[in-house]
């Protein structure tokens, strides 16, 4: 019997090793897997390369992981947002690396990685510093820049509902990068509000099929990152 449910957050992240590439879902504060990230902080894996849309907010979640000096490099689209102070300070001090990627390109690089596509051409960064050192090519009299697909060792994702097989449903914009990160990682670790019995999810509504998910943990009342930031909470 297939059962991908794990019983604790520490068990969910126990296999994440030093130097791993970790994709972390979330679009700003929407869909950020706070509890899994905090479990990763407790686990202590370091020298991580993180792939995410942004660098976190305040002193919780992804920002806390970065502040705890566990991330050596981040690949993202928005390294600085309204409530992000941790990453800019470390970056300006030369203590963390950044690979800046336009948001659409980032999404497509992750999707391509999951689809087995090694590289593709995009027009997004033509004639900008982001294109420096990269191969370019003309198609239909327009220049395109070569970008490579991204794969990861692990993905930390937040979804709404799962069954024991790992089939996933998401809530609204919390869906964002989650589905493609599950396909592009060797081990997708997902926190959900509710795990239902097998057969209770209509197959026609499944967003991420369980074949792309390796671990599921139920977090019934997940933290609201916005509230944590507003209350000036910090972790650990």
Order of helices and strands: HEHEHEHEHEEEEEHEEH
CATH architecture: 3-Layer(aba) Sandwich
User: Any idea how many domains?
Assistant: 1
Mean of all residue-level pLDDT scores? 96
Measured by DSSP, the beta-strand proportion falls in 25-35%
Oligomer: single chain
CATH topology: Glutaconate Coenzyme A-transferase
Helix content: 10-25%
Q: What general outline do the C-alpha atoms trace?
A: globular
Description:
The chain contains seven helices and eleven strands. It has 236 residues and is an alpha/beta fold. Strands 1, 2, 3, 4, 8, 9, 10 and 11 form an eight-stranded mixed sheet that branches. It starts with 8 loop residues before the first helix and ends in a 6-residue tail after the last helix.
Sum up the structure in keywords.
eight-stranded mixed sheet, three-stranded antiparallel sheet, single chain, 11 strands, 236 residues, globular, 7 helices, alpha/beta, Glutaconate Coenzyme A-transferase
Quick structural summary:
By secondary structure, this protein is α/β, with parallel strands linked by helices. It has seven helices and eleven strands.
Write the layout of secondary structure elements.
Layout lengths: L8 H5 L7 E4 L9 H10 L4 E4 L9 H7 L3 E6 L9 H7 L4 E4 L2 H13 L3 E4 L13 E4 L2 E7 L3 E12 L4 E2 L8 H7 E12 L18 E4 L6 H6 L6
Parallel strand pairs: 1-2, 1-8, 2-3, 3-4, 8-10, 10-11
Antiparallel strand pairs: 5-7, 6-7, 8-9
Helix pairs in contact: 2-3, 5-6
């Amino acid at each position: 019997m297939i059962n991908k449910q794990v019983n604790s957050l520490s068990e969910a992240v126990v296999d994440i090793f030093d130097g791993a590439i970790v994709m972390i879902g979330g679009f700003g504060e929407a869909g950020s897997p706070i509890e899994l990230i905090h479990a990763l902080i407790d686990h202590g894996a370091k020298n991580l390369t993180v792939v995410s849309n942004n660098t976190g907010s305040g002193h919780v979640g992804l920002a806390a992981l970065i502040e705890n000096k566990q991330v050596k490099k981040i690949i993202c689209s928005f390294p600085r947002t309204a409530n992000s102070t941790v990453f800019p300070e470390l970056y300006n001090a030369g203590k963390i690396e950044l690979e800046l990627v336009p948001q659409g390109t980032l999404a497509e690089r992750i999707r391509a990685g999951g689809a087995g596509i090694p590289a593709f051409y995009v027009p997004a960064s033509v004639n900008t510093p982001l294109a420096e050192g990269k191969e370019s090519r003309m198609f239909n009299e327009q220049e395109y820049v070569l970008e490579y697909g991204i794969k990861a060792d692990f993905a930390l994702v937040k979804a709404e509902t799962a069954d024991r097989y790992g089939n996933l449903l998401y809530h609204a914009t919390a869906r964002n990068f989650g589905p493609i990160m599950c396909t592009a990682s060797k081990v997708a670790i997902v926190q959900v509000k509710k795990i239902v019995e097998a057969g209770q999810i209509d197959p026609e509504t499944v967003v991420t099929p369980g074949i792309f998910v390796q671990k599921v943990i139920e977090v019934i009342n997940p933290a609201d990152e916005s509230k944590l930031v507003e209350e000036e909470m910090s972790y650990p």
